[in-house]
Write a structure and sequence with these properties.
Blueprint (H helix, E strand, L loop, with lengths): L8 E12 L2 E8 L9 E2 L2 E3 L8 H13 L5 E10 L8 E9 L2 H5 L2 H6 L1 E4 L10 H16 L15 H12 L5 H11 L2 E8 L9 E5 L19
Parallel strand pairs: 1-6
Antiparallel strand pairs: 1-2, 1-4, 2-3, 2-7, 5-6, 8-9
Length: 231
C-alpha cells in the first residue's frame, strides 16, 4: 500500500530592516492566528501557487497586502526548512531581506499601525526560527555593506555625504575614516550631485546634496575591496 505524504508547508518571510535611533531595527507583526497567535513575528505568508509567479513575487505580495509597502530593495536571503521549525509540520520558508528608510515607514499609516520596530540587538521573544533568520539577515547586510552601495537604501532620496557616512556607520556598528569613506564612494561611482541643491545647514555649513544615479536605483554598486574599518 502506497503511503500518503504529509503536505509540505511552503511560505515566504521578509526581514525588513530600517534605521531608528542610529541603529538597525527590524519590522515585526503580531500573528493573527495559531500557531503562536498574538506573538510578534516576521511578516510572512503562504506561497500562492496560482497567483505568485515565483517566491520573490510572493514576498512582494506579502509586504504589499500585510503592510502596504513596496521596498526598493528586496533580496533572497536563504531558505530555512525542517520538521522542527513549525508545529504544523515539515516546512520550508524562502526568506527575503528588504531595506527601507524610516521616513518611508513613518509616512505609511498602515505599516506603522500594524507593525512594531525592534532593535536587532534587543529582540523580543520570536516564534519559529525567526530569531535565527533575523541574525542571518543582519550578518548578510553588514557584510555586504562593507563592499557595496547597500546602505543607501536606508537613506531618503536626497542626502549629504556626512549623512550617508552616518548610515554606513550605523549599519556596520563602527566608525569609518572620512577619507577612506569618500574614496570608497568615488570608487563605487553610484552617486551624483543634485545641481544647485545644498542642505539647509543648521549648525553646520550647507553641504552638497546627492542622490543615487539612475543605474543603481534598482541594482547594487559593488567594489572588490571592503571599507577600511575603524578610523
Amino acid at each position: 500500500m502506497r503511503e500518503t505524504a504529509d503536505p509540505l508547508i511552503c511560505t515566504v518571510d521578509v526581514v525588513l530592516l530600517t534605521l531608528r535611533d542610529d541603529a538597525l531595527a527590524v519590522l515585526l507583526q503580531r500573528r493573527e492566528r495559531e500557531p503562536f497567535k498574538g506573538a510578534l513575528a516576521l511578516p510572512g505568508g503562504y506561497v500562492h501557487a496560482q497567483e505568485d509567479a515565483d517566491a520573490a513575487q510572493a514576498a512582494e505580495r506579502v509586504l504589499r497586502q500585510k503592510l502596504g509597502l513596496v521596498s526598493p530593495y528586496l533580496e533572497q536571503l536563504a531558505t530555512f526548512s525542517g520538521a522542527a521549525r513549525d508545529p504544523r509540520g515539515w516546512s520550508v520558508s524562502i526568506v527575503y531581506c528588504a531595506l527601507l528608510p524610516l521616513a518611508a515607514l513613518a509616512s505609511d499609516t498602515k505599516a506603522m499601525a500594524e507593525a512594531t520596530l525592534a532593535p536587532v540587538d534587543r529582540l523580543p521573544p520570536l516564534p519559529f526560527d525567526h530569531r535565527d533568520i533575523v541574525a542571518t539577515a543582519v550578518q548578510r547586510v553588514r557584510t555586504k555593506s562593507q563592499y557595496s552601495s547597500l546602505p543607501v537604501y536606508l537613506c531618503g532620496d536626497r542626502f549629504t555625504l556626512p549623512q550617508l557616512q552616518a548610515v554606513y556607520e550605523a549599519v556596520l556598528g563602527e566608525p569609518i575614516n572620512k577619507v577612506s569613506f569618500r574614496r570608497k564612494m568615488d570608487e563605487l561611482g553610484m552617486l551624483e550631485p543634485i545641481a544647485g541643491e545644498m542642505s539647509s545647514g543648521g549648525a553646520h555649513r550647507p553641504a552638497q546634496l546627492y542622490r543615487l544615479r539612475k543605474a543603481f536605483r534598482q541594482a547594487l554598486s559593488l567594489s572588490e575591496r571592503g571599507l577600511n574599518g575603524r578610523g
